[in-house]
């Protein structure tokens, strides 16, 4: 018997909590601009993110959106046949949506805590936290969007605050340039994505994802196969931009390098996860290959196979040539987008749910290890350390605890046991093999081996190399240290505790494939 009987719109509570937090921060700033303290701003943003996380975890445990759940047989009865449909199907809250809402909330909380110290002395702090939570709201809504219209609106809600966040350091030329490039390429990609939506609508006459699949299955769009194929190709371009995949990756190194380091962590982790969740939902719900293949005569998974191999290869080879640590992590982020693309490349094969589930697992682990790596860069910037590998030499002598965390992040990103990144890459590798993607699996192994070179290079710099200059004693910023240590602990604990993550990810993938 149900304990709670909530309306369907309550399924969006994780996103609505973030939206309410953003509005509250705007009101706080407008009512008491001069007296507003960093503690209140950072605390409010963190509390909102943690509340969103708590509700998303609660819904997941309660079985909202779980396969086989029926109305009245869970802790929360806000679903129809297991899912909470909101706005006549414009949004759907299922296990897939909740999984990615958890990732967004975790990264947002870590970034908000770290920003308490990083933004000390910077102007526009209230705007900073408001925009951060507002962007997170868009990303959380992207996870539940079930229509091309709501996907586009949520995408823009996430993107527009992100442009401002990248360029919020107005006195920093790199920040302004990075924000401008991000905005210009983002505007182009949004136009491409919107045009793709219009073509799909022209071919099918509907926007809701499941209704698009019904139209395709009905065989009424055969004369529009070329139109539909072009629309799908343009949608892939829009997803490639949001996930920083080749060839729409050019904005990422500039934006990540120029942005405040916590924002680089936010964009490279939460934003990337949000981009992948809409790609997963669109290509499993609206364009299942067994239907679209007959209409357009093209296997769209081939595009994702090429994207996965090219993206991971370009990202890793470019990262290996960098001397700037932040830029290296930016290209590394592109490489990891290639790994996650394996989840789309193997969707139509037997065991496709394992491949997609493995990509989801990787994005969860990546949310901790990549966020932590960028937050270490934020800590180095807080100390006034330079940006090259040489500038990081010998940091472990003065900050051993933070450098232990850095080593955890680097080796986990490379996929070395006993860290969480090893397990997620292992599932990606085995999933690719089961799907018959031997070339993709080989590319994953080769690129992971290459990544160990530049990740270990940073570990060597902080632990083995002698400092090139004498440094004064380093500060101990509480917020940055807390976020980094927590991310490191979770990166380690995820490996022995990976069982529940595997179950939730594979069940969520199986439910929509």
From TrEMBL:
<feature type="transmembrane region" description="Helical">
    <location>
        <begin position="223"/>
        <end position="241"/>
    </location>
</feature>
<feature type="transmembrane region" description="Helical">
    <location>
        <begin position="401"/>
        <end position="423"/>
    </location>
</feature>
<keyword id="KW-0812">Transmembrane</keyword>
<feature type="domain" description="NADH:quinone oxidoreductase/Mrp antiporter transmembrane">
    <location>
        <begin position="145"/>
        <end position="451"/>
    </location>
</feature>
<dbReference type="GO" id="GO:0042773">
    <property type="term" value="P:ATP synthesis coupled electron transport"/>
</dbReference>
<protein>
    <submittedName>
        <fullName>Oxidoreductase</fullName>
    </submittedName>
</protein>
<feature type="transmembrane region" description="Helical">
    <location>
        <begin position="435"/>
        <end position="455"/>
    </location>
</feature>
<dbReference type="Pfam" id="PF00361">
    <property type="entry name" value="Proton_antipo_M"/>
</dbReference>
<feature type="transmembrane region" description="Helical">
    <location>
        <begin position="300"/>
        <end position="321"/>
    </location>
</feature>
<feature type="transmembrane region" description="Helical">
    <location>
        <begin position="40"/>
        <end position="61"/>
    </location>
</feature>
<feature type="transmembrane region" description="Helical">
    <location>
        <begin position="96"/>
        <end position="116"/>
    </location>
</feature>
<dbReference type="GO" id="GO:0016020">
    <property type="term" value="C:membrane"/>
</dbReference>
<dbReference type="InterPro" id="IPR010096">
    <property type="entry name" value="NADH-Q_OxRdtase_suN/2"/>
</dbReference>
<feature type="transmembrane region" description="Helical">
    <location>
        <begin position="328"/>
        <end position="347"/>
    </location>
</feature>
<feature type="transmembrane region" description="Helical">
    <location>
        <begin position="261"/>
        <end position="280"/>
    </location>
</feature>
<keyword id="KW-1133">Transmembrane helix</keyword>
<feature type="transmembrane region" description="Helical">
    <location>
        <begin position="128"/>
        <end position="145"/>
    </location>
</feature>
<feature type="transmembrane region" description="Helical">
    <location>
        <begin position="480"/>
        <end position="498"/>
    </location>
</feature>
<dbReference type="InterPro" id="IPR001750">
    <property type="entry name" value="ND/Mrp_TM"/>
</dbReference>
<feature type="transmembrane region" description="Helical">
    <location>
        <begin position="6"/>
        <end position="28"/>
    </location>
</feature>
<feature type="transmembrane region" description="Helical">
    <location>
        <begin position="182"/>
        <end position="203"/>
    </location>
</feature>
<feature type="transmembrane region" description="Helical">
    <location>
        <begin position="359"/>
        <end position="380"/>
    </location>
</feature>
<dbReference type="GO" id="GO:0008137">
    <property type="term" value="F:NADH dehydrogenase (ubiquinone) activity"/>
</dbReference>
<feature type="transmembrane region" description="Helical">
    <location>
        <begin position="151"/>
        <end position="170"/>
    </location>
</feature>
<keyword id="KW-0472">Membrane</keyword>
């Amino acid at each position: 018997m149900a304990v709670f009987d909530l309306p369907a719109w309550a399924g969006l509570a994780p996103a609505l909590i973030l939206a309410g937090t953003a509005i509250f921060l705007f009101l706080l700033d407008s009512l008491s601009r001069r007296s507003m303290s960093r503690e209140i701003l950072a605390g409010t943003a963190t509390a909102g993110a943690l509340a969103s996380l708590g509700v998303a975890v609660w819904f997941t445990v309660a079985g909202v959106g779980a396969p086989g759940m029926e109305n009245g047989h869970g802790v929360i009865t806000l679903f129809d046949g297991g899912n909470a449909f909101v706005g006549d199907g414009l949004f759907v809250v299922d296990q897939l949506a909740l999984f990615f809402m958890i990732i967004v909330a975790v990264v947002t909380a870590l970034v908000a805590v770290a920003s308490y110290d990083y933004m000390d002395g910077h102007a526009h702090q209230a705007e900073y936290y408001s925009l951060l939570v507002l962007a997170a709201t868009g990303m959380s809504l992207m996870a539940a969007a079930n229509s091309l219209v709501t996907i586009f609106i949520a995408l823009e809600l996430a993107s527009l605050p992100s442009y401002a966040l990248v360029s919020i350091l107005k006195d920093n030329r790199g920040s302004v340039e990075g924000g401008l490039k991000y905005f210009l390429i983002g505007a182009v990609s949004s136009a491409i994505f919107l045009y793709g939506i219009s073509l799909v609508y022209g071919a099918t006459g509907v926007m809701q994802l499941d209704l698009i699949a019904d139209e395709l299955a009905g065989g009424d769009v055969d004369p529009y196969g070329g139109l539909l194929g072009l629309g799908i190709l343009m949608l892939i371009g829009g997803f490639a931009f949001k996930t920083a995949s080749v060839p729409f990756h050019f904005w990422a190194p500039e934006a990540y390098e120029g942005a405040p380091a916590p924002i680089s962590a936010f964009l490279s982790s939460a934003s990337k996860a949000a981009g992948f969740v809409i790609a997963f939902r669109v290509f499993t719900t609206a364009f299942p290959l067994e239907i679209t293949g007959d209409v357009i005569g093209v296997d769209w998974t081939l595009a994702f196979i090429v994207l996965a191999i090219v993206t991971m290869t370009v990202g890793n080879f470019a990262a290996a040539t960098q001397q700037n640590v932040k830029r290296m992590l930016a290209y590394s982020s592109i490489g990891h987008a290639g790994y996650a693309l394996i989840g789309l490349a193997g969707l139509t094969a037997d065991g496709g749910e394992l491949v997609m589930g493995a990509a989801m697992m990787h994005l969860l682990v990546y949310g901790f290890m990549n966020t932590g790596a960028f937050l270490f860069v934020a800590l180095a910037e807080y100390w006034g350390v330079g940006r090259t590998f040489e500038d990081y030499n010998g940091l472990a002598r003065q900050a051993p605890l933070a450098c232990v965390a850095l080593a955890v992040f680097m080796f986990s990103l490379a996929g070395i046991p006993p860290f969480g990144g090893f397990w997620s890459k292992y599932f990606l590798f085995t999933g690719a093999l089961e799907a018959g993607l031997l070339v993709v699996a080989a590319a994953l192994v080769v690129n992971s081996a290459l990544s160990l070179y530049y990740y270990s290079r940073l570990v060597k710099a902080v632990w083995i190399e002698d400092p090139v200059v004498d440094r004064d004693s380093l500060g101990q910023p509480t917020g940055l240290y807390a976020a980094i240590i927590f991310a490191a602990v979770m990166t380690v604990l995820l490996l022995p505790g990976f069982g529940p993550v595997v179950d939730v990810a594979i069940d969520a993938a199986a439910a929509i494939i």
